[in-house]
Structure formats: structure tokens, C-alpha cells
């Protein structure tokens, strides 16, 4: 169990649900490492059970060191899922994320998109999306 999950265990003691903001604030109060706080900042806004928070953090691809699983190490299915999740959370991160969360989002999106294009250079292109 990593540092983030250990902290979540403590934060969820006696509680069923916490908001992402509460989780982040409590991590700061608990003097969690910058890597853990940064990881928790990637949690999309909302309310989470312990399991939901762990699952949501797993989708961001960030470990306790703040670095995601390298794109090249992901299966095709995981790569597609993570890329889809990043695209789904882009607006919320852009409008409400910290500068660090936005920077990480940009970097991770670019990494995953580059890997996707490397693996699927002949992806299907919708002719209606082409411009003269």
C-alpha cells in the first residue's frame, strides 16, 4: 500500500464519503508529502467513498511519486481508457485545477496522445473532420 492509500485509510476512518476538496485539505493538515498532495489534486471534483477515491486516482495514472505509469508500458486498453478519462476531465481541470494540476494534465495528455499516435498511425479518420 502506497503513501497515498495509507493517508486515505486515516482520512476515511469513521467516514463513508469525503469530497475531493476535503481530501486535499486534510492531506495538507496531515502534512502529506508534496507528491501525495499533488496526486490528490488530480482527483476530479466530487464526493468519494474510499474505494471510489482509490479507483479515481488509479485512472489518473499517477503513483506516489507523482509520475504516471509510462505511456509505453500501458496496454492498448489502458491507454485508451486513460486518454478518454483525461479528455473527459479537461474542462474541469482547466477551469478549476491548480496550476500544478493543469501542468500535469497537459503533460500527461501529450504523453498519452503521442503514444496513441505511435501505436495507431493509421487510425480511422472521419472524412467530415477533414478541411481543404
UniProtKB/TrEMBL annotation:
Pfam families: DUF6158. This is Uncharacterized protein. Residues 81-108 are annotated as: Disordered. InterPro entries: DUF6158 (IPR046156). It comes from the Bacteria. It comes from Dactylosporangium siamense. Residues 81-95 have a biased composition (Basic and acidic residues).
